[in-house]
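Duplicate of #3305? Posting structure anyway:
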């Protein structure tokens, strides 16, 4: 694949099954991306460098997923002016509420666009990254419209099946 336009970073390999959802969307839309593991807490210097160097490598959007005291997205956002999308991991004793609060409650000045907890959030992070890139890419705008249209068709198809089953 060519140079990554989106950097997906997660705090641990245990986040990978969730963050794969974001990568899957980017692959579907043909957006070159890179998937990395780097922790805000366990490898802070490495994380800061990864974020600080991203724009210079051609990255346009960063997706950061982490669980528990999930500072990753905020730390990444502090090191770059690229848009950062945060994905809080579910699970754990607090069922992801800890990660949600840690990711969404950024102090004024350093925004993180925070998604829903878990796989739905990771999927939406991928779609939102595509939407941001689509601002300067007509091919992606067309693909996003087709994606929405397919979803609507699927809902209509499911409703038709339901009506048939109940008649
Ligand atoms: C966070 O701590 C990671 O993002 C992960 O969600 C959580 C637990 O990490 P592991 O103990 O599974 O490596 O930094």
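Output from current build:
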């Amino acid at each position: 694949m060519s140079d990554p336009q989106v950097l997906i970073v997660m705090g641990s390999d245990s986040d990978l099954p969730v963050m794969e959802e974001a990568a899957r969307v980017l692959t579907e839309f043909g957006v070159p991306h890179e998937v990395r593991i780097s922790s805000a807490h366990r490898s802070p210097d490495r994380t800061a460098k990864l974020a600080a160097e991203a724009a210079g490598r051609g990255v346009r959007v960063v997706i950061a997923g982490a669980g528990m005291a999930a500072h990753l997205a905020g730390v990444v956002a502090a090191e770059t002016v690229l848009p950062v999308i945060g994905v809080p991991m579910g699970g754990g004793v607090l069922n992801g509420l800890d990660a949600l609060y840690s990711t969404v409650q950024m102090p004024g000045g350093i925004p993180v666009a925070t998604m829903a907890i878990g796989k739905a959030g990771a999927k939406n992070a991928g779609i939102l990254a595509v939407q941001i890139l689509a601002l300067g890419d007509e091919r992606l705008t067309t693909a996003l419209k087709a994606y929405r249209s397919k979803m609507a068709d699927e809902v209509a198809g499911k409703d038709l099946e339901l009506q048939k089953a109940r008649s």
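Confirmed duplicate; merging threads. The longest strand covers residues 61-66. The chain has a mean pLDDT of 98.
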